[in-house]
């Protein structure tokens, strides 16, 4: 697991002691810096982006930074095998992040003080299944409880989709939470 | 010959239209004298729009400052003359610039031309906003975040789309004698750039539209959240502004070219959702009014 303080990335990318993530240009500069940091990580690494020291996050900046950071990772053939989890966010941060993720059909794992949850474009069924994996620690289509109401094939498709979207990790015997953040 | 443009005694969003009407009668390259001698009151919209007027003239305009000492002093404390001095040729004396001590000025007239300006604006406005929004307007502390975001998004639009620098100013007023009957905070973000119609000229929305004018462009950009970029993540800023203004029972109006829209009209005010065929004024002028919160029955 790698911890990235977003405020430090903001300060480094802008060469100014800023605390607010505002404007597209700022978002692009921070994303570029963090992409470089992520590129240096081992395959399968989980990076925790910590927003604790960030004040304002506007939607334009969130789109340029968070959404565009996730777009390549969520494609069928991502340029690298890595995962991103967000933490240290306020209600306003979540609102901005969720809004831009929805616009792109993306989702992210966000760690809150009371546990992790999905933010962005996910169906109720995907959310339910993801919660199940978080609780059990590891799951596969074959080991889901009978009352899941899913065929093995349906469950496999959903789990695979969540893994492709970088919301779960694929392991030898199934799927597990990112960095076991539950 | 110099054309005289008379500034009304009370200069706000509505009365600035009389200024634009006068300008419409004057060729773009004509010399003008902006006569503010009898002006006694100006809102953030009025002051920032005056600077846009100066930017829009081919020949540097002359400016006659208010004769009333208190008015001129306020304009000075609001940093208006700091920038007007560069953009106009001053015809008359103006009070020496002093830092704004007014507790009701949340943000003096501030230029918006580059990315760093938005950071400066957001940092500066937060210092005063929390106190005024929570104590004078009874808004929840969280409102400050949305307030700063609204400012940053509106200012970002100038940098991203206007093609020329603009201006922002924020002020609190006691409007107990007006229809709203309570304190308000007024935000004005004005530029004299390309405006919505030209900015969206290359957009897909334009290509799909049979008709294209300033009113349609305004609705496309402000209400439809369309930008000249086809990226699905664009248009988030305006969406955020509308959401925040609506949540706090505020009012939003945007003027560009020959049209003006009021996409959010609260119960405490009356307005037309869209007005077309107005005299042309370059760029885009946005105004947000947030009133003091009232307890719902």
List keywords for this structure.
heterodimer, A: 182 residues, Transcription Regulator spoIIAA, Arc Repressor Mutant, subunit A, 2 domains, 5-stranded mixed beta sheet, two-stranded antiparallel sheet, 7 strands, 44% helix, elongated, B: 297 residues, alpha/beta, 13 strands, 38% helix
Structure characterization notes:
The complex is a heterodimer of chains A (182) and B (297). Chain A is of the alpha/beta class and 182 residues long. Chain A folds into 2 domains: 121 residues, Transcription Regulator spoIIAA (2-Layer Sandwich); 60 residues, Winged helix-like DNA-binding domain superfamily/Winged helix DNA-binding domain (Arc Repressor Mutant, subunit A, Orthogonal Bundle), CATH 1.10.10. Chain A is built from 6 helices and 7 strands, in the order βααβαβαββααββ. A 5-stranded mixed β-sheet of chain A has the order 1-2-3-4-5. In chain A, helix 1 packs across helix 2. Chain B has 297 residues and is of the alpha/beta class. Chain B folds into 2 domains: 92 residues, Transcription Regulator spoIIAA; 195 residues, 2-Layer Sandwich (Heat Shock Protein 90), CATH 3.30.565. Chain B is built from 10 helices and 13 strands. In chain B, helix 2 packs parallel to helix 4. Chain B is globular and about 50 Å long. The model of chain B has no long low-confidence stretch (mean pLDDT 92). Chains A and B meet through helix 2, helix 3 and helix 4 of A and helix 5, helix 6 and helix 10 of B.
